[in-house]
Amino acid sequence: MHATAKALGIDRLSVAERILLVEEIWDSITAQAETLEVPQSHKDELDRRLTAYESDPNAGSTWEVVKARLQKKP
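^ thats the sequence. predicted structure below, dont judge the formating
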């Protein structure tokens, strides 16, 4: 059986306690990040995007433009 929030009693914690727990879990994961292997497909995609950027660095939108577009109400 895998651990669930209910089985571990996490659902009985306050929101603040759950946030602290998530932070602690994340810290424990990042402490071992070097043991995680990046899939080759992810490396390939990063290489593809880097090549696309290097061939035309002005092709994308600035953060300001993207943010304004996302904040527009339909």
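The helical segments are 5-8, 15-30, 40-55, 63-71.
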